[in-house]
Design brief:
CATH superfamily of the largest domain: 2-enoyl-CoA Hydratase, Chain A, domain 1
Distance between the termini: 42 Å
Radius of gyration: 17 Å
Number of strands: 9
Structural class: alpha/beta
Largest sheet: 6 strands, mixed
Number of domains: 2
Order of helices and strands: EEHEHEEHEEHHEHEHHH
Strand order of the largest sheet: 1-2-3-4-6-9
Length: 229
């Protein structure tokens, strides 16, 4: 249900359950965590692309599996349903999004550093319409990407956000033709992978770490990271 492949120094991870629009059950979440961990530990991997098979990214958590008790009962300190979303990825991740990107799948795309979407992509927290809360970071990462007002509009209506609106909101970084999301994401990840690693990683860490810091401390952190101090 999780496939991996190497494209030079870019590692591709594919959610491969197209009959369920790549909805994630417990074993698939564990396999995803293992695949991400393996890529993060591999010194030859300089960027990761995450995508879904069969014209969809991910329809979210498998509701049938949840009803059957396939997922552990969530707790504040336990792992989130998608397993990997509690902390930022150790290496740059680009999500390649075609079709459905809902619920936990949407949160998985938000976990990525960058998002390339095709014209078919649709985003949203449809889980809220079923009374299922966000547990994989949507309420934290979405406002930081698009602002509080737009985030609340998406969250509190549980509506579908089309690809062109997602681009206008800043939710999507690049918009491509239908069927071209993976190609676009591999191209973008390749550009990320080609940068000198130390300077690139310092810039990325500074961006990710600055949210919890006052501006002057964030500027100091930028300098420490840049100089390896």
């Amino acid at each position: 249900m999780i496939r991996t492949a190497r494209h030079g120094d870019v590692h591709l991870i594919t959610l491969d359950r197209p009959d369920r629009r790549n909805a994630v059950d417990g074993p698939m979440a564990e396999a995803l965590a293992e695949a991400v961990g393996a890529a993060e530990r591999d010194d030859e991997v300089r960027a990761i692309v995450l995508t879904g098979a069969g014209g969809a990214f991910c329809a979210g958590n498998d509701l049938k599996a949840m009803a059957a008790g396939d997922f552990p009962v969530p707790t504040p300190d336990g792992p989130p349903p998608m397993r990997v979303t509690r902390t930022p990825p150790a290496k740059p991740v680009v999500a390649a999004v075609e079709g459905y990107c809902f619920g936990g799948g949407f949160e998985l795309a938000l976990w990525a550093d960058l998002r390339v979407a095709s014209a078919t992509a649709e985003f949203g927290t449809l889980n809220l319409a079923h009374g299922l809360p966000c547990l994989d970071g949507a309420t934290v990462r979405l406002p930081r990407l698009v602002g509080q007002g737009r985030a609340l509009d998406i969250l509190l209506t549980a509506r579908r956000v089309p690809a062109d609106q997602a681009l206008a909101y800043g939710l999507v970084d690049r918009l491509v033709d239908a069927g071209q999301a993976l190609e676009g994401a591999l191209e973008l990840a390749g550009a990320v992978a080609r940068l000198p690693v130390e300077a690139r990683n310092a810039a990325r860490r500074s961006v990710l770490e600055q949210w919890a810091l006052p501006e002057d401390e964030a500027a100091g952190n930028e300098a420490r990271l840049a100089l390896g101090a």
